[in-house]
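Might you be able to consider the sequence and fold that I enclose below?
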Amino acid sequence: MRLLAMLFMIAIILPISTMAQTSQEASFSSSGSAATVLIEEHTATYCITCAEIDPMLLTFLEDNGNRAIRIAMHPLGEDPLGSNISSHRLTLHGGELSVTPTFVMDGRVVSQGFVDRIDMQMNLRSSEITKEGVLSIKGEVDVNQNTLRVTSPGLVLGADEHLTIFIVEREAFLKPGTASNGLDKNHDVARAMLSMEVGGNTSSEILPEGWSVHIHDTEVPSVEFFVDEMDPYSYDVVIVLEKSEGGDGSVLSSTLVALSERSEAGQYFSTLPIVAALASMSIILFIVQSRR
């Protein structure tokens, strides 16, 4: 009887252990598209216009697929989602945030203030036409518990280039009434940023409190982010190849590695431990019955 109880515990514990490992470790990749345009939206939770156009932007991005990647950047100060990322990126483009929203496409400031669907579509098309060359970069992200290891396979940085990695929160929720513009659910919010040059030298690093990074000494750019107690699967990773001097047309290529869509896959795998436990119990019962 004790043997039966022991075998029963093993049958239950092993699938649970497997499930825990499956839910904590995963790899994601993206081959990107040479024509993809990076859209940096400088916005704020106190910007009424931003709240008005947000539904349009979500539909616009969904309809255009991999033609565009958006990163929403909030300023420090009154904005609870703010960080130094917004001011740092605007400095690269030669300006300060005076109007929200401000849209920057592939390093070019294309609009400030209210925009509609037609404006966004025209600016996107114009940015596609003015792209300097056709270059596609790859991205890989390995998730292990609360760490994200980001790699760009096959990429060799030039002397006048750097690679920028953004960690973006797909959906950032605020307590009702926190945002003065009434938008309690924000999308694609920039949470962390790191730029690295040839040889793995870091040119800029902006991280939330409690986060840290480790740059691996490898042939291709590889950075590991430690995201403290946050759920790594609530983020996406945007990898950007840029000219080091910044300015108009500084973005050469970009790709998005989506981690936040993993919840559906997690639901698929969650049934496997149950099936394994049932199968193990059937085998144990068969062995016990055959020995009687």
